[in-house]
Amino acid sequence: MKRILADLPDDDIKWLDRVAEEQGKSRAAILREAVSAYRGETTRDGIEKFFGIWTAQDDPDEVARP
């Protein structure tokens, strides 16, 4: 893992510190989670995990496809 240096406005730092304290995490952990979410990793994992979950189900209420 590499380190970066980023300049953020004071209000953003205060917000990060508040969120980190509320969640019991470090400021760096909150930033890592934010970057992952921004990249779509969290969402993508959920979509890939559950995409097509009903395709193997025999559902009598399913609308017939042409």
From TrEMBL:
<feature type="domain" description="Ribbon-helix-helix protein CopG">
    <location>
        <begin position="2"/>
        <end position="39"/>
    </location>
</feature>
<dbReference type="InterPro" id="IPR002145">
    <property type="entry name" value="CopG"/>
</dbReference>
<dbReference type="Pfam" id="PF01402">
    <property type="entry name" value="RHH_1"/>
</dbReference>
<dbReference type="InterPro" id="IPR013321">
    <property type="entry name" value="Arc_rbn_hlx_hlx"/>
</dbReference>
<protein>
    <submittedName>
        <fullName>Ribbon-helix-helix domain-containing protein</fullName>
    </submittedName>
</protein>
<dbReference type="InterPro" id="IPR010985">
    <property type="entry name" value="Ribbon_hlx_hlx"/>
</dbReference>
